[in-house]
Specification:
The complex is a heterodimer.
Chain A (H helix, E strand, L loop, with lengths): L1 E4 L7 H9 L4 E4 L2 H6 L2 E4 L5 H10 L2 H10 L4 E4 L1 H4 L2 E4 L5 E2 L4 E7 L12 E6 L1 E2 L14 E6 L1 E4 L5 E6 L3 E8 L2 E4 L7 H12 L3
Parallel strand pairs in A: 1-2, 1-3, 3-4, 4-14, 5-7
Antiparallel strand pairs in A: 5-6, 7-11, 8-10, 9-12, 12-13, 13-14
Chain B lengths: L4 E9 L2 E2 L14 H10 L5 E5 L4 H15 L6 E4 L5 H9 L4 E4 L1 H5 L2 H10 L4 E10 L2 E6 L4 E6 H11 L3 E6 L11 H10 L4 E4 L5 H10 L5 E4 L1 H4 L5 H10 L7
Parallel strand pairs in B: 1-3, 1-11, 3-4, 4-5, 5-6, 6-9, 9-10, 10-11
Antiparallel strand pairs in B: 1-2, 6-7, 7-8
Classes of the chains: A alpha/beta, B alpha/beta.
Chain lengths: 203, 252
């Protein structure tokens, strides 16, 4: 059973449908016991980092997610959910993240060429940096769908794939059993479904 | 490198896709679910569903269909038509839409964009604008292109983007339905004015029109069309191959 963590941020409809499409059993839940009972966790999220981190803390979910991940349970953060895995973010101020992956989240504005549009919206190709179990069904250069204005930096150790947008932008990270995708696998067609399927098969 | 996007647009009325569709390999050419799947399978980068229903019963039906489409298609879905309030945003987002496009609703209530952007994020709010040349300027039209608002289009779009619209769809009434190509002049003017993604709509008659669009306006992000895809005059998979041959980056 996979728990899609519901903390009042974002639309979980597509994520839940795509897990169903790859044959996984998933529940949408914000309940601590259900999260502890699940085999795997997915941390979704859209919106602002500060708000989201605050919501996780308010529900005490930050500690539970941290502990479950430290105990070895596979965890995947998607989009803002990935950003929350890092130490901190500089999205409108400075905010503390879950600290499961070393690195920080910074604005694209000022770090990519000025002629490029922000947010980075659309299909971009993955450039593999390291082998990862979540890539077992896809190939280098496959396209995935991005929507974001901030990105992770100083995370070379955990970087498993990047995408080119004026510079190399962190696309996916892995630190042991903790995975993160800046793009939306649930919106990335068959490539995205294959990533989710591979995550469901991790141990 | 980010790719150029090809987006088919489906007009839905009373639960069916309207504007005649002509696919021999589909059993039910008017089923939004079947057609959505078909486009998704043949390489569409995104789908736009437009609700042109007038009645509340039709709207309910549209919501149900949207749910079914969204649970079967794993590419971005934009929904427009009849979006006037935050409740309308909420309704379609809960059915699985990723982005919501507003037109007349934002003209009636310019605060709608900033409120929606605050609640759902800029990436969720698309300003879709019907534009026509009047007295030597680009003018915004409301109510499906029937009503001249008197507003100059470029400054209106700028205002919408400043309020939080994360994407712009430019539909040129002047080129719409003519099938002689996109409105390059109008689209260039919009691309120069805003920094968010711009989607071209209105005028595509053949695959070459897309090549011309992306070659002449390197800043344009996507091309949207309805009837040429629905009638099979242009096949999305073939169009993308052709764009690729012309050194335009697409997702193949």
């Amino acid at each position: 059973m996979i728990a899609i963590i519901d903390y009042g941020v974002g639309n979980l409809f597509s994520l839940s449908s795509s897990l169903k499409a790859v044959g996984a059993k998933a529940i949408i839940t914000g309940n601590a016991e259900e999260i502890k009972k699940a085999d795997k966790l997915i941390l979704p999220g859209v919106g602002a980092f500060g708000d989201a981190a605050e919501k996780l803390r308010k529900n005490g979910l930050d500690k539970i997610i941290f502990q479950e991940a430290k105990n070895g349970k596979p965890l995947m953060g998607i989009c803002l959910g990935m950003q929350l895995l890092f130490d901190k973010s500089f999205e409108y101020g400075e905010h503390t993240g879950l600290g499961l992956i070393p690195g920080e989240v910074i604005p694209m504005e000022g770090s990519i060429p000025v002629n490029l549009k922000i947010p980075h919206i659309g299909w971009n190709s993955l450039k593999f940096k390291k082998a990862s179990p979540i890539f077992k069904y896809i190939k280098n250069g496959d396209f995935v769908y991005f929507v974001h204005s901030f990105y992770a930096e100083n995370c070379a150790e955990s970087l498993i794939a990047s995408s080119e947008y004026g510079k190399e932008i962190t696309a996916a990270v892995q630190n042991g059993n903790v995975y993160g995708c800046q793009f939306h696998p649930e919106k990335s067609g068959t490539v995205g479904l294959k990533i989710l399927k591979a995550f469901c098969e991790t141990e | 490198m980010i790719t150029k996007r090809i987006i088919p647009c489906l007009d839905v009325k009373d639960g069916r896709v309207v504007k005649g569709v002509n696919f021999k390999d589909l059993n039910d050419v008017s089923s939004p679910v079947e057609l959505g799947k078909y486009y998704s399978d043949c390489g569409a980068d995104e789908l736009v569903f437009y609700d042109i229903t007038a009645s509340s019963d039709g709207r309910k039906l549209f919501s149900n269909i949207l749910k079914e489409v969204a649970s079967n298609i794993f590419i971005p879905l934009t929904v427009g038509g009849g979006i006037n309030t935050l409740e309308d945003f909420d309704r379609v987002l809960k059915c699985g839409a990723d982005k919501v496009s507003v037109n007349s609703g934002a003209i009636k209530n310019p605060g709608l964009i900033s409120e929606a952007a605050k609640r759902y994020g800029d990436q969720c709010v698309v300003i879709s604008s019907d534009i026509k040349r009047v007295d030597g300027e680009f003018r915004v039209f409301a109510k499906g292109g029937r009503e001249d608002t008197g507003m100059e289009a470029i400054s209106w779009i700028k205002r919408c983007v400043d309020s939080g619209a994360g994407e712009v769809v430019v539909n040129s009434i002047d080129t719409d339905g003519v099938k002689k190509g996109f409105d390059i002049e109008m689209l260039k003017a919009v691309c120069e004015a805003v920094k968010v993604p711009v989607i071209a709509s209105g005028g595509a008659g053949c695959a070459e029109d897309f090549i011309k669009l992306f070659k002449e306006i390197p800043d344009i992000d996507a091309g949207l069309a309805a009837s040429i895809f629905h009638f099979g005059e242009v096949k999305i998979s073939e169009l993308k191959q052709l764009l690729n041959k012309n050194n335009i980056t697409v997702r193949l």
